[in-house]
Amino acid sequence: MSAEKILEDAREQVRKIVPSKIDISSIDFEGPLVVIYTKDMEAFASGNDMIRQLAQGLRRRVDIRPDPSTLADSKDVEKRLREIIPEEAQIQNISFEDDTGEVTIEALAPGLAIGKQGSVLNEIKKEIGWAPKVIRAPPIQSKTVYETRAYLREVQAERKEFLRKVGKRLAQSKSDGDNWIRMTCLGGYLEVGRSATLLHTRDSKILIDCGMWPSKSDPQPKPYFNAPEFLPFDQLDAVVITHAHLDHCGLLPVLFKYGYDGPVYCTPPTRDLMSLSLLDAIKVSYGEANKAEYEAKHVREVVKHTITLKYGETTDITSDMRLTMQNAGHILGSAVCHFHVGDGMYNVAFTGDMKYERSWLFNAATNKFPRLETLVIESTYGGSNDIQPSRVDAATQLRGIIERGIMERKGKIIAPVFAVGRSQEVMLVIEELVRTGKVDKVPVYLDGSIWEATAIHTAYPEYLNSQLRTQIFQMGQNPFLSDIFKRVDSQEMRQRILHDVEPCIVLATSGMMNGGPVMEYVKAWASDPTASLVFVGYQADGTIGRKIQRGVKELTLSDKGKSITVDFRMNVEVVDGFSGHSDRRQLINYIASLDPKPERIVIGHGEEKKCLELASALYRKFNITTRAPMNLETIRFK
Q1: Quick check: helix, strand or coil at residue 182?
Q2: Is residue 563 exposed (0-12), middle (13-18) or buried (19+ Cβ within 10 Å)?
Q3: Measured between alpha carbons, how far is 5 from 11 in angstroms, rounded to an integer?
Q4: In what helix (H) or strand (E) does residue 94 lie, and over which residues does it extend?
Q5: CATH of 391-578, one of 2.30.39.10, 3.30.70.260, 3.40.50.10890, 3.40.220.10
Q6: 616 to each of 24, 355, 611, how far by Cα in Å?
Q7: Average model confidence (pLDDT) for the chain?
Q8: Is the separation of the CB atoms in 158 and 303 below 8 Å?
């Protein structure tokens, strides 16, 4: 059936449900939505049952939007909004979405912009015609969030055409005959890095993650893009990204560089953090005189083609697959991705990286699903001896390191961190230790993209745990705004820190020491026996971080394109409790708590020994079929 015939059938269905007196301007597909434009928004506002009937009749999500001709000029509207809303509300930004007819008002005091019992908001609704949405402005302004939203407005027409194409493809009927489902391991199996999995049926090809290798090597291992079932790129229906770490999304722009032009599904914070990480990776490559795998224009293509999903929101991503994302507890916006295949034929979930423990930032990973036949789970810390300290123990351990390094040796502490996740948790712990007087107050320098990543965290408070949200927004105590934190915003400032004799703490990217600002501090302080290098995250095989953990005494590093050798005399400390990955005990507890229990568990994202040990343990304990496949293996589920 042609897309035009499918759209005409949808229009006929709408005509049956919507009363003829309601003016329907147009109906179209936009991604997974059926969008209905009308000049009678009020009729729909009071008719929720009608919207429900439309969704059931069309078997699609339905969005009702005002006809563009009914919307007043945005400049005039913004002027009127600033007249109506009290100055004390402290408006930070007003943005318009022409396609949805929605105006978003960001205010530091959103309650004043809404008014008592919604009085101000009601006055706005009467006067402007647009649908107003008042939100709390993030306490730290994010350049990435601002520029991403501005870019999406700039390419609105192109994006609308792209969404229309996706919508028509989703509406196509399924093939006749028996269906099947299988997964092919393209990267990240019996190893950590280059995560990529192809999930395919008779009608669909979905790529889950598209990561880069975390350590430096020549040549750099990439996902097996040349696997025959994967090629060509333009036959791929969709890409799903579990979270924004580069070993899961770092080569996504390469797909667009070589011909992919389909949708990318992820959560809203993942889209923004991913943009930040991908652009930062380009800077790091150029800074080390290496050629980047892609350019900034390919990152913009990623943003333009991204369709975001909130936790718990279910949507069609192909004609025979539905996707729901749930909290994975790993980093901001990280998701356990649940796929419902066919009309109830099969259900499979991919955890991505996950943490089954409430952390300082997030709630524990979701463990309940409507149905689940296969679970694909990580095993970074799945080995028989991989038991991590609790978050409380980790904070106590970090306190001891600061006491020894800062208060006793009067030295410097450098912690290599991922910009997203670990750095924010370490910031929270240090802030509390200083605020409560448990350690001396010293400057904590944030180098790399940590400050911007922190700003993105404050732009999405609904993804943080309830305790932190309450502390920030109700108690007015934002630990991220503490005056101990100093943003390293120039090369000159970094040089001053490197030559300053006073004690300090530096959090710097990259987390596995495979480049980035952290290496500048290591080169300067490596031979200083009063300085400390503190690992708070996983160090993959082949990285400089792993070499240091194994006790290397001499380091060969790159300095402006030349190799230099430095004596390594810093104190080395490892604090495992900050990891965003579940340890062995948490992984086993996660399977024990899963509802429902899967028929099969596939183990990946771990060194070979850890994958095999976890697979064996889960089989013995739960009598569930387990597999720890190699890259390029294909597993048929049904």
Answers
A1: strand
A2: exposed
A3: 10
A4: strand 91-97
A5: 3.40.50.10890
A6: 59, 21, 9
A7: 90
A8: no
Encoded tokens for 433: 């230790």
Going by C-alpha positions, the residue among 595, 593, 573 that lies closest to residue 582 is 593
Q: What is the C-alpha to C-alpha distance for residues 400 and 303, in angstroms, rounded to an integer?
A: 43
Phi–psi pair at 199, nearest 5 degrees: -105, 120
**Assigned CATH for 74-137:** 3.30.300.20
- At residue 31 the predicted structure's pLDDT band, cuts being 50, 70 and 90, is confident
Where in the chain are all domains bearing CATH 3.40.50.10890?
A: 391-578
Is the backbone peptide bond immediately before 510 cis, with ω within 30 degrees of 0? yes
Domain 3-70 has CATH 3.30.300.230: yes
C-alpha pair distances (Å), 177 with each of 160, 180, 341: 34, 10, 15
Which spans in 180-267 are helix H? 246-249, 252-257
Share of the chain residues as helix, strand and coil, in percent rounded to the nearest 5: 40, 20, 40
In three-state secondary structure terms, 290 is: coil
Q: What is the pLDDT of residues 415-427, one digit of tens each?
A: 999 888 889 999 9
Range(s) of the chain covered by CATH 3.60.15.10: 173-385+581-636
**Second-level CATH architecture of 173-385+581-636:** 4-Layer Sandwich (3.60)
**pTM listed for this prediction:** 0.90
Q: What is the mean pLDDT of residues 323-343?
A: 96
Q: What CA–CA distances, in Å, run from 335 to 211, 313, 342?
A: 16, 12, 22
d(CA 571, CA 172): 61
Among 242, 254, 210, CA closest to 338: 242
